[in-house]
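Can anyone check this?
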Amino acid sequence: MKTMYQKFLLLLLMLPLGLWAQTGALKGTVRDNTTGDPLPGVNVLVEGTQNGTSTDMDGNYTLPAVKSGSRIIFSFIGYASQTVSYTGQKTLDVKLAEETTQLKEVVVIGYGTTTKKNNSAAVTTISAEQFQKGPIVGAEQLIQGRAAGVQVTTAGGAPGSGSTVRIRSGSSLNSNNDPLYVIDGVPLENGGGGAGGGRNPLATINQNDIESMTILKDAAATAIYGSRASNGVVIITTKRGKSGEMKFTYNGNYQVYQIAKKVDVLSADQYRAYVNDPKNGATADQIALLGTANTDWQKEIFRTATGTDHNIAAQGGTDNLTYRASMGYTNMNGILKTDSFERTTLGANLTGNFFDKHLKLEVNNKSSVMHNIYANGGAIGAAIAFDPTQPVRNADGTYFQWTKPNSTTFETLASRNPVAMLNQIHNYGNNFRSIGNAKLDYKIHGWEDMKLIANFGYDYSSGRSYGDTDVDYIVPGEFGNSYTNSSTNKIQVMDLYFNYTKYLESIKTNFDVTGGYNYQNFNYQGSSSSYSYQNNLTTPGLPYNNVLNLQSFFGRGTITIADKYILNGSFRADGSSRFTKDNRWGYFPAASAAWKVKEESFLADSKLVSDLKIRASWGITGQQDTGALYPSVPLYTVSNNTAQYLVGYDASGNPIYSTTAAPLPNNKNLKWEETTTYNIGVDYGFFNNRITGSLEYYDRTTKDLIQYAQNPQGVNFSNRSYYNIGDLKNKGVEFSVDTYPIKNDKVTWRVGGNVTWQTSEITSLFNQKVPNFPGYLTGGISGGVGSTIQNNQVGFWPNSYYVFEQAYDANGKPVEGVYVDRNKDGVVNGDDMYRFHKPQSDVFYGFNTDLTVGNWWLSMSFRGSYGNYNYNNVASNTGNGNTGIPTNGSYLNNMNVNVLETGFVRPQYLSDYYIQKAEYLRMDNVTLGYTFNDVFNQGTTMRLTGAVQNVFVISPYKGIDPEIAGGIDNNLYPRPRIYTIGLNLNF
């Protein structure tokens, strides 16, 4: 990435040469090859002479008399130099192309920057040109499939929905496994944070404002962030202004969303046949419940939806002051009826250089306002289960609902009309968020090697979620009710640190030292209330005002010897208010080394090898985000007005109630999780970097896992509490490659890809040996009460499926209720359950390609996984006769078509039959575009694009989508296929 301060420093240095210029034989203008912007400060020199000048603020230059046949050299930092022969012409205009290698050179790291060549840690930078294409509003989705070791799984197809992001599998069992996001120097809450009323916390920043995203993966890169970095760090850098006259950029698109696949359920005719079949046991009364309609309930709740996204940005400035401002508007409708996401964003950046460029001031702000209409997600499950022989509405226009015989009272155990759920239950959300900072960077006069940096930042968000239900909604206890929840999050950040760099020519060694102090304060406030229409009673929730405080001291030193050997070390001490005084501080060291083999004499002149660097690192990071703010402190919770104690009566005989207080569980010995990571990496480049990439191996161990574990009987005021119990080990290999099979003036073809192999194992779960310990149950499912399908046990992947082994007949059909006696004790019981596969993949990968031919541009991207399994909870819950012909009320339910395959009468929730392969290959996006040059005037461009997202998925999985975060498939909001027309203008 070219740096503007370098350009203007060059301008200042060249001003004396400009004074020598006279009106003469040669004049011209130098512009940016892509944008057409004039370039100030370009060095213009007659080769082999001292006759030279520099361009002014408008990109113009004048050279005195130049001899015919001379060669004129145009050079500028960040651009490829150009040499032009002079043949006597009076005017010579030149366009310079940005030098790609320099643009990709700068790597943003914690509290500073380095270069790609001098980086000694596992770091991946993805620029705006490399981002995932399509109508994306969440920042994390821009890197989906683009980086080895990083998995991004969207929560489903709801507009503006969030994602589960895992860097190298995650390091914890019960604590937060989300990475730390840092936006322009402001660390957010892990996972993105933000108050209620929104959808995806990372959708609060406009995707068009992001310049690059840098992923820190190993401990050498992340330990500088200490306690918040055990799951990796994603540094988001937004776009900055460039000097010159004001320029505008517009990006807009129009989207059409269509459902790609629906759940396979029985049609109305199939369902009638099933109920009427005598072998399925329906009574005459149940058969009489069948209707005459043919309703596709999924068709009734889903729709073809549309959306639009617009963003306009302006930038410009002088040599000492640059600016960029942007405004965006997004309006996306979901394929689930009534669902919508609306967002307005504002972004601003101001960068000033003062006192002969010794003082740099940078101010950033990203603000957004969101309005959401949340469609009732329960309608998806209801559409799968509702009787297809019934109409949407009765003859009188009211919604059909199951009622008790000869009554208008709702049948409480029956499924609800999904269309009524969408139209009569209303849920809304409003959210405001502003993230900003002011950064001062002072280079000490007379000691320019030393810089003092102060960064003051904030993250403020407020939100309200609210809703109500129509009074004619038939379900008792719900009709006419309403609720509201309000929350405000205030985060303050202060960084005070120094940076000292010094190159000693005598020993050809460069020293780079950084050290400082970090303060971050989190304040969470909120209140809630609910109204019961039937009781005419408003119940306020307990207001809260909680504070979390983190304070840290950090340091980092880098020594580069002879531009070949790099040694790096860092240390951070973190204090967290989550823990008691004895365990408050955690200490996180890291070290790394790199050998730039390419700089050795035996490779320096190699035409085959253009880059080769070997890296190794070690470090410790921490985890303190348990989800509870005060897990170590003795606290009490106070009851509301629905749970008070009668203490007597007043003089008038009115009852007197007292609020009660109950102690909360706590563990004063709770301390940090600590993750130790070893990493070995190789960065490579061949054929003048036509082929580049990296290879990594990592080994990561987390000890003192924070578990929400069972308390001994009578201990700690609760069934469960937080304890440091157990260890977890992750290992993996990552490979990435980027290559240009064709690269010339007319055609450029790039192919990139990455693949990650990973494994994870729980190595300990208790502080002392517990005989026959079954592990911790997790992974709740629909069906039954408190049913789970996953288990954490020593020697297995986290969240492995915990099931019975299904028995099959001679024809390969599963036998209902018959399981394998695995321990061969003659009895099938809980002792025969076993751990069978897991939701995580053994291998995941992504590959993408771009082809430019003249003004045409084609881009495609793919992702996939291998070795992961899903639990098909949709089939296990609705694929049985008891669901279709229930015996506990006067109603009917539809069934998953899987019932025709198994013939199950009763649910078999714990059968391994429902653990299904979920590996997949997905074509994420294909985009075709054409660029028109000099549309309005010289240097202006217009690009038209057409794109399809979620083009296809190839998978053996029997559900609607194999990509399920956590592996339990229970009525996922379908990911739509999206058709997009886009327009980009630069003027």
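Reply from J.R.: I decoded it. The mean pLDDT is 90.
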